[in-house]
Amino acid sequence: MPQAAQILISTRASERADAARRWLAAIPPSTPTLILGPSQEADDDLVRTVAVKQGALFAIDRLTLNRIAGLIAARFMVENGLAPAAGLAAEAVAARTVFRMKGDPRLAYFEPVFDRPGFPGALARTLSELRLAGVAAESLKDLEGRGTALAALLEQFEAELREAKLLDRAGIIRAATATVTSGTPS
Questions:
Q1: What pLDDT is attached to residue 186?
Q2: 2, 20, 111, 157: most buried by Cβ count inside 10 Å?
Q3: Of 61, 80, 62, 96, which Cα lies nearest the Cα of 171?
Q4: Which is nearest to 167 in space by CA: 68, 77, 65?
Q5: What is the rounded distance in angstroms from the CA atom of residue 148 to the CA atom of residue 151?
Q6: CB 93 within 8 A of CB 161
Q7: 128: closest CA among 171, 163, 179, 159?
Q8: Bridge partner residues of 167 (DSSP)
Q9: What integer pLDDT is reported at residue 2 of this predicted model?
């Protein structure tokens, strides 16, 4: 029987994958098991590799971080009338932010690229990273230039999310974390 919890730190993906295969192979075939992996494909490959060597496996759930966070945050989203906004939806919110802020003097730093087609996508990725890192717009305002511009864009982006009743990846992870830490079942 494998250890209930095991942490392996390695810069080599092959070492991590080998450890995961050994761990999964040690589990009796019908033991309820949760695999939390980087992608559905990686999870499926792990299970398939072990199943080919030892036979059928069942009672194994395979989830990604985004999927498990979404499942945990689902009740919060339903109760608050929110929908997830990832990928293209977040880019659309960023495009709306750009449209609404056109001509705002705080955005002078981005003036040369503000109307370029790739700007909303780059902005969505940047704002997503800031939100995932827990960077507040207020903390960017002191940075002048790009900091002032990013703070204004981040504030507007968050306002657009609220107005549209959407949660981006950072919002979903925050909601899931709050649900888990409060002990409220979701």
A1: 45
A2: 157
A3: 80
A4: 77
A5: 5
A6: yes
A7: 171
A8: 84
A9: 54
pLDDT (0 to 100) of residue 40? 93
Q: Are 101 and 156 spatial neighbours (Cβ–Cβ below 8 Å)?
A: yes
Residue among 7, 8, 45, 53 at smallest CA distance from 26: 53
Pull the structure tokens for residue 113: 């690229």
Residues counted in the chain: 186
Residues forming a β-bridge with 61? 34
Per-block mean pLDDT, blocks of 10 residues, the chain (186 long): 70 91 87 90 93 88 93 95 93 96 94 93 96 95 90 97 96 95 69
CA distances from 74 to 14, 118, 128, 163 (A): 34, 32, 20, 19
The helix/strand/coil state of 55 is: coil
Q: Two tokens at 123?
A: 């902005």
What whole-number distance in Å separates Cα of residue 7 and Cα of residue 20?
A: 10
Provide the token pair at 149: 């511009």
Query: What DSSP character marks residue 21?
Result: H
Instruction: Look at residues 183, 101, 167 and name the one whose alpha carbon lies nearest to residue 132.
Output: 167
Is-contact 73 167, C-beta < 8 A? Answer: yes
| 73-78-81-86 Cα dihedral, nearest 10 degrees | 40
